[in-house]
Amino acid sequence: VQLQASGGGLVQAGGSLRLSCAASGRTFSGYAMGWFRQAPGKEREIVAGINWGGGGIYYADSVKSRFTISRDDAKNTVYLQMNSLKPEDTALYYCAARSYHYSLESREYGYWGQGTLVTVSS
Question: What is the 3-state secondary structure (H, E, C) of the chain?
Fold first, then answer.
């Protein structure tokens, strides 16, 4: 499956962005999706994950109540709605796919998008 992430940009603290990740190539509905981010000088970390069918969802503590992950299988797209953004949310955001159930470990995802940059100014 090929993944194309989009929606990043520059936003002031307290603002919102919605990231999209469009999938193509294989049946999207059978894949769990994850959003990861990597800030300069830091390791890649999971932000949110969603199981196939949307039955299970995970959020990192740092984004709970501010970010929402969702998927539209008819459009082969997963979204990350980001509200109340903080400067520490600044990072390159990646979407990733693996079969059925999300994982917190980036190494368990076989498919990755190219990343979209989110910059939050204070």
Answer: CEEEEECCEEEECCCCEEEEEEEECCCHHHEEEEEEEECCCCCCEEEEEECHHHCCEEECCCCCCCEEEEEECCCCEEEEEECCCCHHHCEEEEEEEEECCCCCCHHHCCEECCCEEEEEEC
Q: Among candidates 103, 62, 115, which has minimal Cα distance to 86?
A: 62
Question: Which residues on adjacent β-strands are paired with residue 6?
Answer: 20
Q: How many CB atoms lie within 10 A of CB 36?
A: 24
CB 120 within 8 A of CB 86: yes
Tens of pLDDT, residues 80-114: 999 999 999 999 999 999 998 999 999 999 999 99
Q: What is the pLDDT of residues 29-50, one digit of tens each?
A: 889 999 999 999 999 999 999 9
Give the distance, in angstroms, between the CA of residue 89 and the centroid of all CA atoms in the same chain: 12
